[in-house]
Every structure is written in C-alpha cells, then in structure tokens.
Amino acid sequence: MHATPTTRSTRTRSARTRAGVLVAGLAVLACTAPTAHASYETTRPAARAVHETARPADGTAYRETRLLFGTERPDGGPDVTERQFTRFVDREVTPYFPEGLTVQEGRGQWRDANGRIERERSYELTLLYPRAEAPERDARIEQVRKRYMQQFGQESVARVDERVVADF
C-alpha cells in the first residue's frame, strides 16, 4: 500500500523500472559469476576439491526454479491476500508439481521513478524437479506465471532457474 496515491502510468513505469533493474542485475550476475568461478577454480584447487566433496554422494541432477509473486495490484485494487495466494497455489501449482514445493513469505522493495521507496509483501515459491524433465516442466511453469498475472492483474512474475544436485 502506498502513502500517496499513484496513477496507473506511474505504477506501470515503476513495474518497468523494477523489471529493468532485475534483468540488469541478473545479466551482471550471469556475466560475472562464470568468470569469478573460473578464476576461483584455477587459483584455489584445494577449495575446489572441498566443494566437489560437499555434493551428495547419491545426488541427482535437478533444476531449482524460484518464482517471485508480488501481491500489490498495479491497477490500485486490493492486495492479494494470503488466503487468495494459498488457494492459487493449491489449484494452479500443486496439481502440476504434486511431489512438493516450498512457499516463503517475503518483503520486496524498490525505488520508483520519483525516488520513493516502494514496498510490498511477496511470496517466493521454490520447485525442484529432475533436469531431464525441464522442457515439460517449463511449459507448466509458464502457465502458472501467466495465470497468476491474469487472475491478480500483475504485470510480471519473476522466475529464477538454477542447476542443482539433490538427494532425498
């Protein structure tokens, strides 16, 4: 909720600014992380050996997908409630991922085009699935994102994917 009323165009610009900052940040990480990791491995072989032994012995290649859901409606409507979000997960996510998922509540913030700090309650949903199933799961994840945006009038749902090794 905002202390001062904002227009739809201000919120749209704000959402575009947030999306731009997120994309720029991810681009920086994508460009620098491999370089930093490569230089770390060549200069610190002992550390690399420790990292490799920390992997689960019977681990399987998985993909971890995190979806970040905002709860403030850009059109000025009422925020998405915890009950509405839980119902959405029960109906739209769990049927696609019956093996399980994790939901964490969070708080997001960003600086808008006018320099004001904007804050909103948010949810981070984490999914783990075998890497071999990624193409099939990708389509399902995109359906979930699209449905949330449509159902709650959101401009975006952020998505972060990582390759991981997991053992259950």
Helix run count: 4
**Helix content percent band:** 40-55%
Q: Can you tell me the CATH class? A: Alpha Beta
Q: Tell me the β content.
A: 25-35%
- Uncertain ranges: 21-44
Give the count of structural domains: 1
Annotated CATH architecture = 2-Layer Sandwich
Ends apart, CA distance between termini: 40 Å
How is the biggest beta sheet arranged? 4 strands, antiparallel
Strand order in the sheet with the most strands: 2-3-1-4
Query: And the CATH topology?
Result: Alpha-Beta Plaits
Rounded Rg: 19 Å
Report the principal-axis shape: globular
H/E element order: HHEHEEHE
**Structural class by secondary-structure content:** alpha+beta
Sum this structure up briefly.
Keywords: Signal. This is DUF3574 domain-containing protein. This protein is an alpha+beta fold and 168 residues long.
Describe the structure.
The protein is an alpha+beta fold and 168 residues long. The protein contains 4 helices and 4 strands, in the order ααβαββαβ. The protein has a single domain, classed as Alpha-Beta Plaits (2-Layer Sandwich), CATH 3.30.70.120. The protein has a 4-stranded antiparallel sheet with strand order 2-3-1-4.
Question: Layout of SSEs?
Answer:
Blueprint: H1 8-43, H2 45-53, E1 60-70, H3 82-93, E2 102-111, E3 117-130, H4 134-152, E4 158-166
Antiparallel strand pairs: 1-3, 1-4, 2-3
